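Support reply, case 0932

Customer input (verbatim):
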Amino acid sequence: MSFFKNKIVLVTGGASGIGYLMGQKSLQRGARKLIIWDIDEDALLTAASRLSKMGFEVETDIVDVSEPAQVQEAADRVLQKHPVDILFNNAGIVSGKKFDQQSSDEIKKTMEINSLGLMFTARNFLPAMMEKASGYIINIASAAGLTPNPGMSVYAASKWAAVGWSESLKLELEKSQTGVKVLTVMPSYINTGMFAGVTAPLLMPLLDPDDISTKILDAVERGKARLREPFMVKLTPFIRGILPAKIYDFVAGKIFGVYDSMNTFIGRKKKEE
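Our regenerated output:
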């Protein structure tokens, strides 16, 4: 029997991209209900309509995960009806600029959504999970949380914070024998439009959204605590740990081209464009 059978699943940033795919695949694996949080009302309506037509039970809410009061109010509405069994902390943004070109608002928003937003959301659903001694929190971080990368310094900072928090939370919950699991997902660039224009580093092709979303759900099924994709990302901590900084920078920058990958970044076009 699938781990997802009869589970209540919530996905933040779930109206599009891999968030939508993870929600859809959860339902296809037997989830009883999918709750989608997003800030894009039109995308929410489209996602809910599409999934409902497939015969699935879907609930949506407009939630900005960077606003703790908004998160708490939305979480309370959910918890008044039922606990959440599986939480996909997926909402994220990127501002692909050099640090000196970032505005204070851009820096603040990136950190709030990509790191604090995960914490705010998990904090509201974790007590109910701990009370029933079961639950799974999946935090979508990034390979950018494992290595520096010019052109995405603030994004990398937010993902380093996400990785550190997520893996520490996992250990806390294990140590206290809560029964709640945590999966930290660290993918390289995913071909969803969010990183449109990036140049894929050597041996690290753009990840297919359908493929990586399936691998994430498979990792949940197997009870994994960490998922890094593609293969070279799995090696990144080891390589960075054994090489002197200058040699690592040469290997990552000159050989694999990681440090030039954002030079061609365009990003997802805004609606008004």
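We compared this against your earlier run and they match. Two observations from our side: The first helix runs from residue 17 to 28. The chain has one domain: 8-260. Please reopen the case if you see a mismatch on your end.
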